[in-house]
TrEMBL record:
PANTHER family in the cross-refs: NUCLEOTIDE KINASE
Keyword flag Nucleotide-binding: yes
Protein name per Swiss-Prot or TrEMBL: Adenylate kinase
Segments of skewed composition (Acidic residues): 196-208
Native source species: Rotaria sordida
The UniProt record lists the keyword Transcription: no
Recorded superkingdom: Eukaryota
Residue ranges with Basic and acidic residues bias: 106-116, 139-192, 212-224
Length: 440
């Protein structure tokens, strides 16, 4: 394909610039004049032709007479002594030389060698009085050449137009293909998005169902725990450091069979169980000095109460609540508090007791300065709690500055009345079937 294109371009170039006619005119001039320096002849002829507006013909470089814009002066002839030329006649017309040998242009007939004919002297000012056949032939050649040029140009135009059409068609095809691809991609994206939406909706549904299940499970547990706690008092035990509440809890457990639950003991026990997620959580929180949230403490108390509800006759909750909101949350999530027993001791007695304990226990926090700071914090936390349960009629204050047995006597009187009241309430709430079963 490239070779054919190059050939066509070469032919087009030669034809448009009339290269064959140029060679024919130069060779004719050389053969007629036979100049000694043929190179100068060619250069001078081309220069004069380039500077003028004369139409290129086969006899352009032969000087002739007339008004044909041929201004070439007579050129020097050869010094060949074998050929004699008659003197030129001013009235002799310039005739076309006989046919020459074939010139490799592809467009002229073969002509006999010019050496066989006598040379004709050019007469610049003499021109033929009538059109010569070569002018008609030149018109034919020009017309044919124009047809060839037009045909070649048409082929070029058609080729370029075809390239434009192909390019536009390719752009159209690409655009249509892009639309198809975009449509398919959009369908795929929509499908994937729908799948994501379905998965998310399923997750939401699962979460909601899990919440419902958890809520129902919690409600079931709450019902079970509340059923198990019927007739079993929930007693909050309060008192400052050195108030002796630990000793009184031991006496209550011994007499009434209560289960003693200390929030601090539950937290410390949880931190030591590194085999469970809950244990690792509390261990990390304690090691980093973080405060244990109310929800976490309530979770520990609730689990402990549920585990021991069958065997316990009541619960002593020691060291809890530390704030009013903790007590309220406990009564909402676990069970109502029946009473808060507060062991009241003046600060100076608590300081004296703790100082003596420090002498034997070796605890670094049992010194007067540290104890005084602890008591300030204790009163700031406890005073609102005492007010809250006092307003509800659930506060029992015991003077704990006396001997342990004297203190416990007051505790026993308070608890005996509480236990009788709890039993009466429990019997009142029993259904007829439960009462019949109990009487049997």
């Amino acid at each position: 394909m490239n070779t054919n294109a190059n050939t066509e371009l070469a032919k087009d170039y030669i034809a448009k610039r009339k290269i064959p006619q140029l060679f024919e005119a130069l060779i004719t001039g050389l053969m007629v004049h036979k100049p000694e320096d043929h190179i100068d002849f060619i250069i001078e002829s081309l220069t004069r032709h380039k500077d003028g507006n004369q139409q290129l013909k086969w006899d352009t470089f032969i000087g002739r007479k007339g008004g044909m814009n041929n201004t070439l002066v007579p050129l020097k002839t050869s010094t060949n002594t074998n050929v004699t030329s008659p003197p030129p006649s001013l009235h002799t017309e310039l005739t076309r030389p006989p046919k020459l040998d074939a010139i490799p242009t592809g467009k002229r007939e073969e002509r006999p060698k010019i050496e066989d004919q006598p040379p004709q002297s050019p007469i610049p000012d003499q021109l033929p009085q009538s059109p010569i056949p070569n002018q008609q032939q030149q018109k034919v050649d020009d017309h044919q050449q124009q047809k060839v040029d037009d045909h070649q140009q048409q082929k070029v135009d058609d080729h370029q137009q075809q390239k434009v059409d192909d390019h536009q068609q390719q752009k159209l095809d690409d655009h249509q293909q892009q639309k198809v691809d975009d449509h398919q991609q959009q369908k795929l994206d929509d499908h994937q998005q729908q799948q994501v939406d379905d998965d998310e909706q399923q997750q939401v549904d699962d979460d909601q169902q899990q919440q419902v299940d958890d809520h129902q499970h919690i409600k079931t547990e709450e019902v079970d725990v509340k059923d198990l706690l019927k007739g079993k008092p929930i007693i909050f035990v309060g008192g400052g450091p050195g108030s002796g509440k630990g000793t009184q809890c031991e006496k209550m457990i011994e007499k009434y069979g209560f289960t003693h639950l200390s929030a601090g003991d539950l937290i410390r026990a949880a931190t030591q169980d590194s085999t469970t997620e809950k244990g690792r959580y509390f261990n990390e929180a304690m090691s980093q000095g973080k405060l244990i949230s109310t929800e976490d403490i309530l979770g520990l108390l609730k689990d402990a109460i549920q585990e021991r509800a069958n065997e316990a006759s009541g619960f002593l909750i020691d060291g809890f609540p530390r704030r009013v909101d903790q007590g309220i949350q406990f009564e909402q999530d676990v069970a109502p508090c029946d009473v808060l027993i507060y062991f009241d001791v003046p600060d100076e007695i608590m300081i004296e007791r703790l100082t003596k304990r420090g002498e034997t226990s070796g605890r670094i926090d049992d010194n007067q300065e540290t104890i005084a700071k602890r008591l300030v914090t204790f009163h700031e936390q406890t005073t609102p709690i005492l007010g809250h349960y006092g307003k509800q009629g659930k506060l029992i204050t015991i003077d704990a500055s006396r001997e342990p047995d004297e203190i416990f006597a007051d505790v026993s009187d308070a608890l005996t009345g509480l236990m009788e009241q709890k039993q009466m309430n429990s019997d009142h709430n029993l259904s007829s079937e439960e009462k019949s079963a109990k009487s049997i």
